[in-house]
Amino acid sequence: MNSTIEFNHDDNVENVSRRRFIQGLGLGSSAFVLGVTIPLASNAASTVTSTKDGQLPLNFFVSLDKSGAITIVCHRSEMGQGIRTSVPQIIADEMCADWNNVTVVQAPADREKYGSQGTAGSASIRSHFKTIRTIGATARHMLEQAAANVWSVDKSIVNADNGFVINTKNGKKLSFGELASIAAKIPAPDKVSLKSVSDFSLIGRDVKLSDLDDIVAGKAQYAQDIQLPNMLIASITRPPVVGATIKSLDDKAARKVAGVVDVIRLKPRSFPVNVNPLGGVAIVATNTWAALEGRKKLIIEWDRGPKGDHNSEIFKKELADAVKNKGNIIRQRGDVYQHTYDDNALEATYTVPYLHHASMETPAATAVVDGDKCEIWAGTQNPQWAQGQAAGELGLPPEKTSNVTLNVTLMGGAFGRKSKGDFVVEAVELAKATKRPVKVVWSREDDVKHGFYHSIAANYHKAQINKDKSVDYWIGRNAYPPIGWLFNDKTKTPSDSQLSLGFADLPFNIDHLSCENHEVESYVRPGWLRSVACINNGFALGSFVDELADKAKISTRQMWLNLLGKDNFIDPRQDGFDKWSNYGMVNEKDHRISTKRIKNLINLVSDKANIDEKLPSNEGWGISFLRSFGSYVAAASKVRVDNNKVTVLEMHTAVDCGIVVTPDRVKAQMEGAMVMGLTIALMGEITTENGEIMQSNFHDYPVARMQQIPPMFVHLVESDLAPGGIGEPGLPPVPPSITNAIFKASGKRIRDLPVNKVFNV
Q: Rounded CA gap, 33 and 72, in Å?
C-alpha cells in the first residue's frame, strides 16, 4: 500500500527556477527541472521565506533532459559516508528511475536554497528520509501525468518503471527523456503517494558509489588538490595553548628563505574561542617547501595565557573525584538516597582521555578575495557556517553573505573536525592580506596539536543488585568540559542535547534512578568527534553492566535482559528530563526508546558471535550496547591476553537502524566504527602539560594498524521502521566490548582508557 503526502505552505514541491538551474548544469531548454521547497533545516520549526522574485527557495533539485539523463543535486557533504549515493538512491527509487542514468552534483553553500547543509549527527537520512522520498515521488507523478496527457488517458492506468512510463492497458511505453519537455510544463501536485516498503526497488539494495570511479582513478578532487593561478601556500605556527598570544616575533631568517613571499601575523582571538582560528604567524610562499622551511626559522616567544597551566592527568583525577559526589539532577525516578546500600551494591568510576579525530585528510582550504567578494574551495561538513564565518572575516553584513561562494569538495574523512571553519577563515584572512589566492593546508602535526578534541571525561555508576539478579537503585553521574564553552566561556555544564547522548536516556526499567551532572572548567577546544559524549557514556555504561553481571554471578547478556525488563518504551521526560532531545526525533514514534529492540540486539550479537563458546582461560568474549542517533547497536569482541599482550581476535556488531538504504554503506560505516573504537579502546589518548598538547603525529597518537584489525562481522536487522543514523552509532559499544573481553581473559578490569596503560597492544 502507498502512503499519501499532502503539502501545506511550508511543504511544497514546485517545478520552478528552471532557467538558472538549467544554465548552471548546461542542460537544454526542454529539460524537466524539479525544485522542492520542503524545509530541510535541522530545526523542524523553521519556516520558508520568499526570495526576491516571489518564488520559494529550493532545497533539492532533480533535472531530466531529453536523453533520459537525470541529474540530482545533493545538499549534504560527502566525507566517505556515501551521502552522495544514498540521497540520489532514495530519490531515484521513488521516481522509478534507471539508476544507470543518474548523475550527482554537489551543491555549494546556499541557505536560501538548501536549508541547513550541516552534515553531522548522522542526520542526513534520519531527518529527511520522507522529504527526500517526496522529491522522487513528485517527479514520478509529473512524468506519469505527462504520459497520460500524450496518450489522452487517465493517469490511473499509467505506471513509471525503471526510466519509462508504461500504459498498463496496452503495454505502450515512453522513456523519461521523451517526456521531459512535457513534464516540465506540468504543475507540481498538491499531494503525492509514496511507495510501500515492499515496492522499493533501489532502497535496500547495494549500488555503486557515485564517486567510486573518480576516487579509484585518482580523479576525485579534495580540498588539498585545488590549484589556482598565482596561488600562494600558507603554513601557520599557531599558539601552543588556547588563548596564548605573541610576546615577541623574530621573522628575519624566515623572510630570507627562497620562495617566501611574506610573514603575516594573524589577528589574535579572544575568549570565547568559538570555532575561529587560534591566531599565530603565517608563512606565505610560492611553494610548500618554502612555506614549511620558513616556518621552522620563526622565533616566537609566547604569553601562554590563562590556560597555560593545564595538566590533563591532574584534571582527570579531579573529574574522577568530582563524580563521586552528588551532582545536579537531570533525571530522577523514585529516591536513590533513602536506600541503604549493602554488600550487593556496586560502584565504579570510568575515565576517558582527550581524543583526536585523526581523519586521513587534514584540514585544507583555498580562498580568493576580490573586494567584497570571495570564493572558497574547502572540505567542510558545514558549508553555510563556514560561509558565514568567511563573510564575517571580510566585514560583510548578513545580507551580503551570498558574496561568499563556497565550493564543497570531497573530504577524506572528517568525524566532526571539519564542521568547524577555522581553517577556512585562515585562508580568507591571508587571501585578503596578500591579494592573491592562498591555500592553507594543515600538516598532521598542526591537526593533532591545534585541533578540537573529544572532551576528557569521568563517569560514575552505583547500583544495588536485588535478589532476582536485577537492579532497583541506580545512580549515574558524569563530568566533562562542555562543547558550549566554545561559544560562551562561562559555560560549565553540557547542553540538554549533550546530556541526551547515552547518559540521561538510560533505557532500564528501574524503580529508583538518578542521572546527575557536574560543572567543569574547559582548557582545550572541545568539539564534536564521532559519537560525541556517547563515547564516554557508552564506555561507562557498558563496562558497569558487565561488572554488575560479574558481581551477580550471571552472564552479561542476562544482566542486560534483566535491566531492560518487560517490552516497553522508555521516555526520560516522564522522569523530569523535560528537555530530552532524542536527537531531534522526539515526536517520531519509530524513534522511541524500545526495550524490545535492545533485547533483540543483545541476543542477536551474542548468538551470531557465539559468545558462549568454550575458550582457553586466556581468551574471552565481551559484549556491550548503546542506542544513539536514532539507531540501536550491540557489539561483541573476542580477545586473547598472552604475556601481558592484548590481541583482539574477532569483532561483531549487530545493527537495528530501521530501513536500510544502502546495506554496503551501513556495513562500511560499522566496520569503520569498529576500527575507530578499537583505536580508542587500545591506544587513543591526547595529553596536555602546561596547557600544550603533547602528541603530534601517529608515532605518539597511534591509530589501529592493519595487523591489529581482526575479522569483523556486521549483522543487519531487517526493518520497515523509519531510518536512524548510521555514521556514529557503531562506535560507542565497541570499546567496552573489548575491555569486558579483556576482563574475561585476564581478570583485570579496565576503567581508565586506553588499554595500553596496562597491557601491551
A: 10
